[in-house]
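Course assignment 3, question 2. Fill in each field.
Student: A.L.
Task: Predict the tertiary structure for the chain below.
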Amino acid sequence: MPGLSIVDRVSAYARPDGWVLEPTPSTFAPNGRWSNKDMDPVPPKGRTWSTFNYIAYWVSDATNVAVWELASSMLAIGLSWRQALPAIAVGHIIISLVMVANGTIGARLHVGFPVLNRSSFGFWFSYFSVVSRVVLSLFWFGIQTYTGSECVYQMLKAIWPSLARMHNGLAPGAHITTSGMMCYFLYWLIQFPLMLVSPQKIRWLFMVKAFVVPPAWLAMLIWAFVKVPSSEGLFKQHSDLSGSAMSYAWLSALNSALGIYSTLAVNIPDFTRYAKNERAQYVQLLIIPTAFTLVGFIGIAVTSAGMSLYGTVLWDPLQLIDRWDNRAAAFFASFTFVLATLGTNISANSLSAANDMTVLFPRYINIRRGQALCALLGGWVLCPWEILASAQGFLSFMNGYTVFLGPFAGIMVADYWIVHKCKVDVPAMYDPHGRYRYTYGFNWRAVVAILVSVPPNMPGLISSINPKIDVGGAMKIFDFAWLFGFFTASVTFTVLSLVFPAKETFIPEAITSESAFEDAPGSERSSHLEKGVEEEIKAVV
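Answer field:
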């Protein structure tokens, strides 16, 4: 709004039309209601992510508290560390295959998940997965922010030990202390400016995290083996399970490994759309299982040392750091966990929520505004300390959300690679009345695939929320919910799509953003065509 005074600018933003984003001339949508600059295919100058950036990204994402604690649930159900580590490795090998299958679509078409999803689910049914993912991302953003605030608390306590004795002026029912709220606000302030950085440039945060956090965690691994021999602690624990009980316990462990990044297996195109070329993201096949298995092993080793040193199992690394006498070591270790949580929260939660919000309100929300909304809604409105204190059933539901994510990923992979054989129409994904409208905006084949793959897992999900509810043998399906959902949905969708094909969606060649740009008025190719037509007309005349 150039030329306006500050008062005029503020009053302009008080009106809804003051928030309308400026439409870009390259948009594929019929009008600005259906797209904006951040939703459009990424132009060549915006494709900045190289192979090294994807290595740094996944090393960054692997180093977070959730992956550190991943083996804890596996050992809790009776597996030994020798059985838990292969489950982590195999789970991440499987998820890396799906990650690259869906990631290649984004790298090839340069379009994000919320738009790509329309070609599989139908223009309007795609909003089901988008809305559910927004809600999920907001809740996990708040919870991860609270985890980051605990890291800040440990950092400050290492400098000023008196922080542990700080007077609490909040009521017991607040479920958070004065020092806790102070640290939460500090972490939120640190995190917020980084959320305003564009996806093309935020890769530098992942690179910094990849160079700082892994060496520090390897130092903790060395400390663990120096302090306690590998023959003690958790390493001497053996499993008492056998037969079918062992098999289902291992499948449950595998499902835990699959579930930790099953969300990103669906929306990985949000990041691979910025790849310099599709080969740049192939490295995910190697780096994902390697990095995640290593971090899982570090979590087991350090927890094992803490068990021998302090007489209790401390899976939460912050509780372990809290018992250290060396304040400098406690400070730097806590700092690495702050950095770890920052990178993970932005990549896995806030960016995902922002990309989805752009599709819900493209006239008003771009990625930057979406991230700001995520910071406010997920960080403050949802009050994550209240959820952690009194909503364990809801947390169990969010953990069990893989019953939906497996089918989502399966349908996307089947539709692009098997059904349409990579021949899709990118501009049509932006048109509510285009070829991907299907039946009133719903691809009934995807609806049936969801209805076939999700309900069998619902009894197990209900039992995980309330263990008092006995669902009998149905719990066994829930033990491998992601695998069941992925394969059941992909097979059902493929069969229905081939037996009852949506003929309007099948095209002889893929129509990508590049080919659309070339055919656009004013483009070089278009100019040549127009010139040729003019010459033919003159010849006839």
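Instructor remarks: Residues 126-159 form the longest helix (34 residues). The chain has a mean pLDDT of 87.
Grade: pending
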